[in-house]
Every structure is written in structure tokens, then in C-alpha cells.
Amino acid sequence: MVAGMTLLLTGCQEQAPAPASERAQVGPAVVWAEPVADARAGMPNRGACHRLPAGLTGGSTDAAATVPCSDPHTSVTYLSGVLPAEIEEAPQAWVAQRCSAALPEAAGLDVATMPAAFLEWVWLQPDQAQRDRGARWFRCDVRSLAPAPAELPGAGLPVFRGDLPERWTRCVSTEQGDEAAYVTCDQPHQFHWTASVPVSGEQHPGNRAWEELAAAECRPLVGQAAFWFTYPNQAQWDAGDRRLSCYRAV
User: Fold this and answer.
1) What is residue 1's predicted lDDT score, i.e. its pLDDT?
2) Is residue 159 part of a domain?
3) Which of 59, 80, 175, 233 is positioned for an S-S bond with 139, CB 3.0–4.6 A?
4) pTM over 0.90
């Protein structure tokens, strides 16, 4: 009985470690470092010039290489930054407000003259390769609007230095009767852009309200001449464009 108990206890005891000379020799450990996410990977700097493909829509990715601003170019980056994490899934409204607010300075125009120019902003975001590196930036580019030339004047920012050229100024042609069309002011036209005025309020006015505003605001600017007026659509209004444009008959 005593001997059996002794064997049982001995079997439950931990085995003594092997002598140091019998231990396995382990080589140096290899630690694989995780790549550091770079939120700005591939983000162009302010003033970078590009040849954007025609028809590129907002929120697209752009694989076109940056070109020297002394070369022909169709857009210039004027604002870029990292998207806040909380709006990364739906950044359109957040980006639109910032692109719209910074556009006049990029164009070299004051806020009141900006609606006269055949220019617009377009925003872009990282491509998949840049996203794989952790990129989550946005950028705002200024580009031309048809029928103005696709290639921008100048060599970067601002786009215009001095007065807005007629070749880039909005005029209205009514040669087709009731079908009015924008044309550049160096082409035949019936109404020439005169001025823009700010419109207050939070809600986008209805058609009747715009007509009343035009009668009150444009008439003093054009005198007794006939006039045309244009105003921002709902999307433009939401992005921060709150100006009524007046055109005087020529």
C-alpha cells in the first residue's frame, strides 16, 4: 500500500528540466512590421497641374500624371487634405462646401465675379493602390467649362491675373428664339454678363421668387435695357453658391 502511493505521487510530479547542454538552441526571432498607413499617400500639392480626362465626374480617381504648369494642362489642384474619419463614407457635401468656398481665390477672381467665369471645380479621391497604402484624402481641382477652351490659361494659380478675359466670360445667345444658350463673350451674343448679387436665406428660392429677386436686383444694374438672369440650381445652392447673375442686353 505504501509503495503504491509512492509511485502515484511520483508520477504526478513535474519532470525536472533537462540540463542546459540538452536544451534546443533557438535562433533570432523575425518580426514582420505592419506597414504604416499613410493618409496622404499620392495626394497632390496645391498648385499641381494635370491633364484630366474630359468628362471626369466628381469623386472619381485620377491616374493622370502631374504635368509642369508651363505645359498645356486642363486642371490645377487648389485645395487638398485628409477626410475626417466620421464623414469618409459620404464626403460629398463636406467636400463641396470647401471646394466651392476656395474656388474664387484659385481662379483669381472676387466672389461677385466668379459666376461670370466658365470655370468649375471637381473633386477627386485616391485610387485603389493609394487606398491600399492608407490614403483617405480629397482634392479640389479647377477646370474649364465648355464652351471655353479645355486648356486653362496661365501657368498654375491663380488661373487669371487681372480682368476676366472675354474668351472666358459668360454671355447669353438667344439666336434660337426661346432656346437661350451660354456662349463665350468673344462670340456673337445678345446678353452680356453684368454683375452678380448675393441672395440671403437658407432655402433655395422657387422660380417665382427668383423672378421677383431679379426684378428688384438686376434692374438697377442694367438700367432701362432688357436683361437676362440666371441662378444656381439646388445642388449648387447646397454647395454654397448663393448669387443671382444679371446679364444686360447689348
Assistant:
1) 38
2) no
3) 80
4) no
